Amino acid sequence: MISRVESAAATRRSLLDAAAGLLDEGGPEAVTLRAVGARAGVSRGAPYRHFADKGDLLTAVAAEAWDRLADRAVQWAADPLTPAEEKLRNMLTGLLAVGREQPHLYRLMHQAPAADEVLRAASRSQGPFVAVLSDLVGEDQAHRYGALLLTSVHGIIGMEASGQLTADKWHTDADDILTLLTGMIGHR
């Protein structure tokens, strides 16, 4: 028999998955507690027992997205057989993939003002990133280069999404730019 705690955790998981699906399909406007509950197959009141409001639910979705990136970053950083430059590229490509494949989620992850829960999760993802950069540029420069790379990826995502980053116009694409950036850092 499933315990009350396990049941509550399963319901919360279903609600978060439903909210993420609705967000992907229609943006934040599509995410209502009623729609989330219906998609999750729970009672109308269930979402309110887990989340104070829509903002609280979306905060949890954004924090989970950062946590997933952090989990991957920790795995990449810990791999002793992968060169640091490749680890760095993997981490940046992971962030780029969220921007490309889940643009509503990406915007939610970067929405201001960020809730403390989102900031903590984002910070957790940046720890392994800075550690890999430290291997490449030294601890004293890692944060500086990290800011440069993350703001560059953010710009790449924005330009690509708006149609302004095209091979016809710039004779390059997002993937080439990432290779250029990580190569410049790696060969500094």
TrEMBL record:
Gene3D superfamilies: Tetracycline Repressor, domain 2. SUPFAM superfamilies: Homeodomain-like, Tetracyclin repressor-like, C-terminal domain. Residues 32-51 bind DNA. Keywords: DNA-binding, Transcription, Transcription regulation. It holds the Pfam family TetR_C_33. The keyword Transcription regulation applies. GO terms for molecular function: DNA-binding transcription factor activity; transcription cis-regulatory region binding. Residues 9-69 form the HTH tetR-type domain. InterPro entries: Homeodomain-like_sf (IPR009057), HTH-type_TetR-like_transc_reg (IPR050109), HTH_TetR (IPR001647), MT1864/Rv1816-like_C (IPR025996), Tet_transcr_reg_TetR-rel_C_sf (IPR036271). PANTHER family: HTH-TYPE TRANSCRIPTIONAL REGULATOR PKSA, HTH-TYPE TRANSCRIPTIONAL REGULATOR RUTR. This is Transcriptional regulator.
